[in-house]
Amino acid sequence: MKKLLKLCLVVSLFTTLLACQTLDGDKDKNNGSLTFPTLEPCTAELLQSSKSFICVKEQTGPNLIETNIKFEADSYTLNAQAKEVLNKLFAYLKLTDATRFTIRGYAGKVESKILTDQKILTDYNIRLSKNRAINVEDYLVNKGLNSSDGITIKALGYQDPIAPNDSTSSRAINQRVEITIKNRAIEQIDNIENHLEHVKPAEYIKFFSNVYLLNDDQLNNVSRIYDSREKRPILGINFKIFADKQYTAAKDNNNFIIISEPKPISAFNADKKVYRLGTAKYDYTFKGITAMTISNLTREASVGDYVIPNDIVSQKLPEQTFKMKSKVTANILEDVMNTNTFSSSYNSILLNKGEADGFKVGAEVILYEPETRTDGFPVPPKYIGYGFVYRESQHYSIALIINSLQEITSNSMATTIL
Known about the structure:
The protein has seven helices and 22 strands. The protein is of the alpha+beta class. It is elongated and about 95 Å long.
């Protein structure tokens, strides 16, 4: 009876463990929408780090995406930081349809005073490095990657150390799994980046759109036009208007822009989009309101529209556009002025990445069509133009197309690095 009871307890414990593993596996499954991760450049410090990382390694031709997952000594368990890096890698793999790559497992070489048989030590390191590579593959598969897509496992033991195996800290750097992916080649990729010329944004201001992006904190500086001295619903130049907020008489509040009602861009964040209707100058304040005089109108404005200090929404442009070191990839959501049409040179496009993702005003972006499939066969990505970012909020940005080889649609993509 006691034996039977013990057996039942063992079976119950085993079943519980399996259930926990199943729940963990389900938790790792990717059920949400994916966005391209921001990838930092590979630096010497990063490559010698004892923490997991994913980065872009620049070279002649297509760049490499380097992923390095670290492990504790004698362990093949993934820690939380390693999983965060693998989540970025998974998003990149799924969104670029990269299917063939090798997972290389390594271990730090350890000398044992007790065990002198080098073959046993070597076999142990090979098993450990293989288990590490398999664990990384399992994690990606549980996220939703197809294991039959062409993943190769290599167990390399203590071969190819990236740090001397002469100390605990150095061996920690070697306790790793490496994955190298060649950035998907784009048609006409040869010398594209070398032929992209830096431009002076000031020379393109006349092409900038009347659309502005606002962060949640900037909305506190927006006020509503509730009346005019002329008592007319449609406003004109030199009209005296009254806004329902008292602004200070500071120098940076001398100039205002008249804007449309702030509208959300997406339900997932608080960023808003507005249209610039004209400009106004500060006159005076009175009992919680501000009086202004309209100095210019580019679109029809009326009582019920809004104003905001110009300095709140104006973003300083660099003297010259620049290439970012970080790889930021974004979807093109729309042409900001003609949302139902195609975009071309000197049009402005809305991107679904902003300041929080690493974009910077003045950053150059390369426009391309992602890989597609026809009759089951892949059609490679294609370079279609370039431009630069001139406005941004936390989660969105507006880029001006400097040159386009064809019409640019909402199916196109933008990236800072090929």
